[in-house]
């Protein structure tokens, strides 16, 4: 099993490529949020995947270092990953949940923190989304799968 990240295997331009993909991911999230194309939370994501998996264009699984040992969370991730693979949905592991919270607003109406462990990006209801940033992220996921890295890791910068 290959434990190297795409960053480690792709050669001399790897840092620039990872920075570019990270920036593209931030653009995707920032543009999807006002369109109502973001679903947050493990339970909410599971419901959305069950109802309309064809509408999901990207799945993010996020943890911080202290949550890596959370067995229940890892079981949820395994099930979500399996479902996404079965339905051809691109998946990314994201570290730095604090930065993810900053991008997505971080709290629900009423001040309750959001469960950012699973974030789905969906197509807007009216059209199929053709976003260059999303295309870059999807290409990164596809290239990672070619290298047998089925769930690539993105480290969001502070």
TrEMBL record:
Keywords per UniProt: Cell cycle, DNA damage, Growth arrest, Nucleus, Phosphoprotein
Domain Ribosomal protein eL8/eL30/eS12/Gadd45: 24-105
Subcellular location: Nucleus
Domain of life of the native organism: Eukaryota
GO terms for cellular component: cytoplasm; nucleus
Gene Ontology process terms (BP): DNA damage response; regulation of cell cycle
Record keyword Nucleus present: yes
Coiled coil: none
Record bears the keyword Manganese: no
Principal cellular location given in the protein's record: nucleus
Family classification: Belongs to the GADD45 family.
Name used for this protein in its record: Growth arrest and DNA damage-inducible protein GADD45 alpha
């Amino acid at each position: 099993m290959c434990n190297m990240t795409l960053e480690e295997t792709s050669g001399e331009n790897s840092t620039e490529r990872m920075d570019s993909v990270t920036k593209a991911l931030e653009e995707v999230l920032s543009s999807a949020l006002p369109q109502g194309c973001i679903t947050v939370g493990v339970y909410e994501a599971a419901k959305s995947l069950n109802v309309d998996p064809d509408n999901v264009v990207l799945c993010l699984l996020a943890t911080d270092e202290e949550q890596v040992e959370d067995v229940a969370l890892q079981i949820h991730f395994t099930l979500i990953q399996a479902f996404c693979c079965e339905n051809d949905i691109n998946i990314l592991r994201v570290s730095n949940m604090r930065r993810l919270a900053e991008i997505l607003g971080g709290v629900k109406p009423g001040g309750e923190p959001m469960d950012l462990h699973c974030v789905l990006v969906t197509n807007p209801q009216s059209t199929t989304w053709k976003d260059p940033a999303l295309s870059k992220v999807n290409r990164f996921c596809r290239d990672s799968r070619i290298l047998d890295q089925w769930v690539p890791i993105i480290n969001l910068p502070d």
